[in-house]
Each structure stands twice: as structure tokens, then as C-alpha cells.
Fold this protein.
Amino acid sequence: MPLEKHHKWMIGSFSSIIIIFIITSSILTYTLFTRQEIIQRDMIKEIIQIQSEINEITTNLLTTKNEITSINSELGTMDEEFDLLKASASEDFSGIIEDAIKAVVTIRTNSGQGTGFIVDKEGYLVTNAHVLADPLGKLSDPINILTYDGSSREGLFIGYDADFDIALLKISGEFEKLKLTNSNDIQIGEKVIAIGNPLGLQFSVSEGIVSAVHREGLNGKDAYIQTDAALNPGNSGGPLINKEGKVIGINNFKIGSGENLGFALESNYIEEIVNQIGQQILNKTIV
């Protein structure tokens, strides 16, 4: 049956509405999709920008940290150089002594007392062998070690060299140590300090200069520094220290009939002998 005219109009109108709806929906969908894409792109740009700023801040923080570390290092170096300058000018040895004296010890036995100094952070220390001997030349026992912090420890005897009057001991714990310098670099006239326990006065310090090097000792060896730094009974085994706070010798003996005639075994001999004892007894190098 043929459609009436108004039916055709209704169908056409409905079809037009459907087509318009589809077109509108497509436009809206495209618009929404495009806008979402733009928003996502903008968000990604923002994230990248924020990440870049974070990276820049991190880099600046690391740079600042490194600069602070560098400044602290430079300040530490300046302090050391200032101490060295003061010591060189003989204005003040206090900065050098303050550090060095922490590694010096008092050694007490049944027959007397002397001085020693720590050469390894594990507690290995050096002194004169005669400090440990009784009047008959036998090793005194026990050996009591008094450290700078006031604590007392039993000293373990490792070994000795009778010719150069050097003994190696050990105490338990971890300690500040003194470094040995090359005694071939010692200059006549340079300022030095001796740290020891003269006449029982613990951790006493005396100042002087190097009067001569390679002096002949009681053993006939040209291995001794002559110094006018005051040395007295109880200084034996203590360190002779230069303006850098390093050991150039171990105080050994003085000529009693003369004034300011003290002698210290040069540091290169100390290092050689201590390491020989370490290798023979412990199978290890000490310094």
C-alpha cells in the first residue's frame, strides 16, 4: 500500500534527526578526544618540566654539598698549615703537641719508668729496650702502659733489638698513632720537640733544635740525631718530633757531663728495626 504524504514526511524528518544526531555525536566525540589528547600532552609537558626542575634542584644540592665538603677540607688544610706556620716561627707548638701527645704513653715496670709512642692504630708501640730491663738486664714483668686518656693497660712484649736499644710492645684497643718521617730529610737547625716523662713528670714537652745528624752512638753506629732539647731520665723511648708532628727519632741517651747534649735514634732505623721484629715474630709489617 503506498505511503501517504504525511508518512513520508515523518520518516524523512526522523531520518534527518538520526543523521544530525550521529553527526553531532561524532563532532562531540572528536572534540572530547582531541581535548583529552591536548590535556594529556599538556600534563606530560608539565611533568617533564617538573622533573627537569627536580633534577636541577638535585644537581644544585649536590654541587652545594661538594662545595661545603671542599670548604671544610680547605679549612682543615688551612688549620694544619697554620699550626705548621706557628711551629716554624717558634710562636706556638701547641697545635702540633695537642695531636702528637695523644699517641705518647708512659711505661712503668717494677724497676722504673720511661716513655713510648704508638706507631700503629692497633696498639703497637715503640720504646727503648733498656726501659723494660731490671738492673740485671732481665725483662721486667709486668709492663704497665698508661695512655694519655689516663687509662692503664698491660703491655705485651713482642720483641727487641739489643744493638739499637729498640723494643716493640702491644696494648689492646685502637689508638691515635704517630707517623715516622724520612730521617734523611732532617736539617740541622730545624726546630724539634721531645715528649716524655722526665723524672716522673708525665707527658712533659721540651723544645730545641737539631744540632747534628748521623752522630755515632754508644753502639758505634752513625745513626743518631744530636739535639739540645732537654732530655732527662724518663724521656727514654719518647718521640723526637718535627714541626709537622712527625717522628724523626726516638730519644735514647744524653751525655751527662755536658749541657743540652741529647741523642735520638733516627727514624729510618726505627722503621727498619720495628718491621724486622714484626716480620720475625708476627710475620707482619708494623709501620
Q: What stands out?
A: The chain has three domains: 1-90, 98-170, 183-282. The two ends are 121 Å apart (CA to CA). The longest helix spans residues 5-88.
